[in-house]
Amino acid sequence: MAKMLSCPCGWTLISPQGVEDVNALIHAKDCHPGLTETEDEVLKMIKTV
Predict the structure, then answer these.
(1) What is the pLDDT of residue 10?
(2) How far, in Å, CA of 33 to CA of 49, rounded?
(3) Rounded distance, CA 39 to CA 49, Å?
(4) pLDDT higher at 11 or 37
(5) I want to staple 15 with a disulfide (CB 3.0 to 4.6 A). Which of 1, 19, 21, 25 is the partner?
(6) HEC profile for the chain?
(7) What burial letters (b/e) apply to 5-27, b meaning 16+ CB within 10 Å?
(8) For residue 5, which phi and psi values (nearest 5 degrees)?
(9) What is the CA radius of gyration of the chain?
């Protein structure tokens, strides 16, 4: 099943490959260097579409 992650900044990623292909942590580090969420907290934001 495809997975989707939407960031409050407007960035959205839809991955047909599932969670393994969601590069949310790369986006967070590149665009939000002060972000304090853990990897687990970010992964909880992923929804099935």
Answers:
(1) 92
(2) 28
(3) 21
(4) 11
(5) 21
(6) CCEEEECCCCCEEEECCCHHHCCHHHHHHHHCCCCCCCHHHHHCCCEEC
(7) bebeeeeebebeeeeeebebeeb
(8) -130, 130
(9) 10
Tokens of 35: 């972000």
Model confidence at 49, pLDDT cuts 50, 70, 90, reads: confident
Q: How far apart are CA 40 and CA 17, in angstroms?
A: 19
Write out the two tokens for 13.
């990623």
Q: Over pLDDT 70: what percentage of the chain?
A: 90
